[in-house]
Every structure is written in C-alpha cells, then in structure tokens.
Specification:
By secondary structure, the protein is α/β, with parallel strands linked by helices. It has 2 domains: 231 residues, Alpha-Beta Barrel (TIM Barrel); 40 residues, no CATH class. It has 12 helices and 8 strands. Helix 9 links the parallel strand 6 and strand 7. Bound molecules: 3-methyl-2-oxobutanoic acid (KIV). 3-methyl-2-oxobutanoic acid binds next to strand 6.
Length: 285
C-alpha cells in the first residue's frame, strides 16, 4: 500500500507517542524511491552531497542550484515522505532577505517540505524570517560542518559542561524562535538527551546518541558507498562499494573473455530474415 503523505504533524506526533523518527539523507531519485518503499519517515537532501556525490572535500563549495536539482530528484522519488532541503553555505549567511529567498526556492522549485540551516543564536533572525515566510525550519547545532573552520575541524561539541551550556542555550533559543525541529550533530548523549527532554519539538540526532527523538544517517555511509572516511557514529548496513566493484570486475572479465554478450542479450533478425540476409551476403549484398 502506498505510504500516506507525511507532514510536519506526522513527525511532531511521533515525539508525543515516543515513536523514534528514522531519517536518512538522499540525493537522487532511485535512492529516494528505495527509502520511501522501506518506510523512511524523513529524508534530508543534505549539502553532504558535495562530498558524497560531487567528490568535494567538504560542503562549502555546494551551490543552491545543485541543491535544488537534487531536491527535485528526491521529491520525485519520494512523493509521500517528509523531505527537507539543506541550505548550503552562503545561501543564508548574508541577510534575512537572502535566507528567505533561498529557502523559498527549495519549496517553489523543488517542492520539498521545509529547510534545515546550521547555527544557533547567531542565525536566529534568519530562522524567524524563514518561519515568517511560512516555511518549516529545522535547526542544526553541535558540529556544524559549514563552520568547521571556526570549530577547528570536524570535532564533537559540548563534551565539557562549559561547552554544553551554550549548546543548550542555542537549542532553547531555536525552539523559542518557532523552529519545528532541531538536529544535534556529534554531541554527547547525556547533553543531547537533556535537550530532547527539555524541548517540546522533535530533537533528532546524528552522532548525538540514543536519547533523541530520532536518528539521521548519511545514506552513503549506511550503504558503504562513501570511501574517504567513516565518522565514529556511522553504522554501515551493507557494503555497496564492494558489491559494485566486484560486479564491475566480473563485467570486465566477461567482456575480455567474450562471455558477454551471450545469445539472450542479442536482438536477432526477424523470422526468415536471417537466411535471406546470409544469402545476400554470399552474393555480395
Ligand atoms: O548535509 C548533511 O547531510 C547534513 C548532515 C551531516 C547533518 O547536514
């Protein structure tokens, strides 16, 4: 049976009932189809597509146009799943106006259900402006890859009481601003659990332990496709890199050995045509 269209209410209700939200990134149409068929609650078209799809070293080079193209594909593949677009670096940093315009593009051009943006108190006016435009917003604090330069690299955040306090303040401020959900990245489970209990909006985790209202993983990590590095919080559920490489090796071997294509892969001439064709060849065509 096709899945009923998920809305922000579906996700918010899960916090009330205690059902954990299963959230995954997706960047393309087939992956989005698989995710919806599997029963995924939410998808994120993350700016991690910079690394996972385009081979960049980080997320900073990702553009709005790239995000929109991938959001469109994911929306087509998962029409009933709750899909968030990830606002790339410099799509919201310069001004509230630019943030609203770019957040609006995600909905207008790609038909996604809302946007996620990185940062706490310092992006509060952006969050409010996007919400005022009627767009669902997910905050994102902790390890925020777009500002990893300021954080001194891709490091877990809030591991001391002194560094946990500003995270908790950011989380409260984001809820107070009206955001509908919050993502915590690479935060200790004790701190994340406290935030999840304190907030009434769904608090999701990527590397923030089991006490949040749901989990996010990067699909390229989950399926064992991304090769450059594996963060501590990743669980690989299969190894498609190995499966695909082995399949390609087998294909190369078959081609070299003349085993591919076999008879069943050929479009033969229609009945009676082959014999006539052979006669014609004998006669010099
Ligand atoms: O781009 C992304 O996939 C993300 C996650 C790392 C949280 O923002």
């Amino acid at each position: 049976m096709p899945q009923k269209k998920h809305s922000i209410h579906t996700i918010q209700k899960m916090k009330t009932t205690g059902e954990k939200v299963a959230w995954l990134t997706a960047y393309d149409y087939p992956t989005a189809q698989f995710a919806e068929a599997a029963g995924m609650d939410m998808l994120l078209v993350g700016d991690s597509l910079g690394m996972c799809v385009y081979g960049y070293e980080g997320t900073v080079p990702v553009t709005m146009d790239q995000c929109i193209v991938h959001c469109e594909a994911v929306r087509r593949g998962a029409p009933n799943t709750f899909v968030l677009g990830d606002m790339p670096f410099m799509s919201y940093q310069a001004s509230d106006e630019e943030a609203v315009r770019n957040a609006g593009r995600f909905l207008k051009e790609a038909g996604v259900d809302g946007v996620k943006l990185e940062g706490g108190k310092r992006v509060l006016s952006r969050i409010k402006a996007i919400l005022d435009a009627g767009i669902v917003v997910c905050g994102h604090i902790g390890l925020t890859p777009q500002s990893s330069g300021q954080l001194g690299g891709h490091k877990a955040q809030g591991r001391t009481i002194d560094s946990a306090r500003p995270l908790i303040e950011d989380a409260l401020a984001i809820e107070e601003a009206g955001a509908q959900m919050l993502l915590l990245e690479a935060v200790p489970p004790e701190v994340a659990g406290f935030i999840a209990r304190k907030l009434s909006i769904p608090v999701l985790s990527i590397g923030a332990g089991p006490y949040c209202d749901g989990q996010l993983l990067i699909v390229s990590d989950l399926i064992g496709q991304f090769q450059a590095f594996t963060p501590k919080f990743v669980k690989k559920y299969c190894n498609v890199a190995e499966i695909i490489t082995n399949a390609m090796r087998a294909y190369i071997d078959d081609v070299k050995a003349g085993r591919f294509p076999a008879d069943e892969h050929c479009y033969h001439m229609l009945k009676g045509e082959k014999e006539k064709f052979e006669e014609l060849i004998k006669e010099g065509l």
